[in-house]
Amino acid sequence: DADGLVELQALARRLVDQGRALVLAGVTRERYARLSDSGVLATVDATNVCSDLELAAAHAIHLLDQQAAGV
C-alpha cells in the first residue's frame, strides 16, 4: 500500500545516508512498477531490486565485496 512505499523510501534514504544500500528480493513486475511509480526507485538503485532471494543475496555479497575493496 501507499504507506508501505513511503516507509520503504524513508528506510532507503536512511540507509543511503549511512553509506549502506537496500537490496529487495521477490520483486515482481507489478511490484517493480509500483516502486517506480511511487518514486522509491529514485532512492533505491534499480540494480538492487531482485526477482528472487538467491539473486538478491548474491548481489548483496557483491556490494559487500565492492565496499571492502573500496570501490
Plain-language structure description:
- There is one protein chain.
- This protein is mostly helical.
- Helices cover 61% and strands 0% of the residues.
- The chain has three helices and no strands.
- It has helices at 2-17, 29-38, 53-69.
- It is globular.
- The model has no long low-confidence stretch (mean pLDDT 95).
- What percentage of amino acids are in beta strands? under 5%
Q: Helical amount among residues, as a percent range?
A: 55-70%
Largest sheet composition: none
Order of helices and strands: HHH
Ranges where pLDDT stays below 50 over 5 or more residues in a row are none
What gap, in angstroms, lies between the N and C termini?
35 Å
Give the mean pLDDT.
Answer: 95
DSSP summary: helix tally: 3
The tally of beta strands, per DSSP, is 0
Shape by Cα distribution: globular
* Structural class estimated from helices and strands: mainly alpha
This entry's quaternary arrangement is single chain
Question: What is the gyration radius calculated from CA atoms?
Answer: 12 Å
Annotation keywords:
71 residues, mainly alpha, single chain
Give the helices and strands, then pairings.
Layout: H1 2-17, H2 29-38, H3 53-69
Write a brief structural summary.
This protein is mostly helical. It is 61% helix and 0% strand.
